[in-house]
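EI: anyone free to look at a 313-residue chain?
SC: sure, send it
EI:
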Amino acid sequence: MPDDFGPCAVTIGNFDGVHAAHRQIMRRTVEAATRNGWTSAVLTFDPHPAKLLAPSRAPRLLTTLAQRCALIEEQGIDEVLILPFTQEISKFTAEQFVEELLVKRLQARLVLVGDNFRFGHRAAGDTALLRRLGAQLGFSTEIAGTISSRGKIVSSSTIRHLIESGDVSRACRMLERPHFLEGRVVPGRGIGSKQTVPTLNLETGAEVLPKTGIYVTRTHDLDDARQWPSVTSVGFNPTFNGDRLTIETFLLSNFDGGTPKRIRVEFLRRIRDERKFESAEALKREILRDVGRAQAWFRRLERFRADHARYTK
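SC: here you go
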């Protein structure tokens, strides 16, 4: 962290997933900084504090650190500051955290946090203490309330549950983007190209995976601008007695320019459960029905976008 950062508006948190509530507070941070001529900043931690303090209770993360930083920067934040969460940092009192980091290092003029924000050793500091310290040390404090989506509070833990239960559509609304998996394309068992349909097999280190099943997806080549509508299977290939989880994506349009080496798969809607078929031919027929369902979904999406564009002119 820099020694002389300059006056800033800063928001603090883990921001796993960079969901709708995170984005709201980041927009407020950018607006305040722009209005006052300050730097807009996010202060986040790596690793997640729970991984150091309570490893058995540490959450599975929706995003890697690199993904989190990229998503934060998309919100218009000037600087993403990553604080290595060490034993030393974990022992900072609430007062030390504010005085040493926010005031001396960052010259914070405005600190924006969620209403459940805790800080300092043993999470002793809360938003009331932050307000009092700000009044003493020369910065303002803004507390962002919770936001809801269809009756549920938007939170990283809720989104994890939605994804792992297969409700990727609702997770998408809470994230304000699709949940995605990234990684290398690796060789499969060769069954698809010979007996059903050819697929791209994704190898990923993601900690949160969608429930096994078949999904409407969109696939991006991470090395260029290509993207394709797609159908993705997350599962164990029961028809072929598979014994390990695979993530296999069938592209709904040709990929000119060669097979991608690294891809991002965005999960848009769940189609059905994974199940065992009596033959490869029966599975292929069902895959083609899945393709038809996905193509119909993408057509509806295009009609919605066209109607929205027409009515908002």
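EI: The CA atoms of residues 8 and 38 lie 5 Å apart.
SC: 👍
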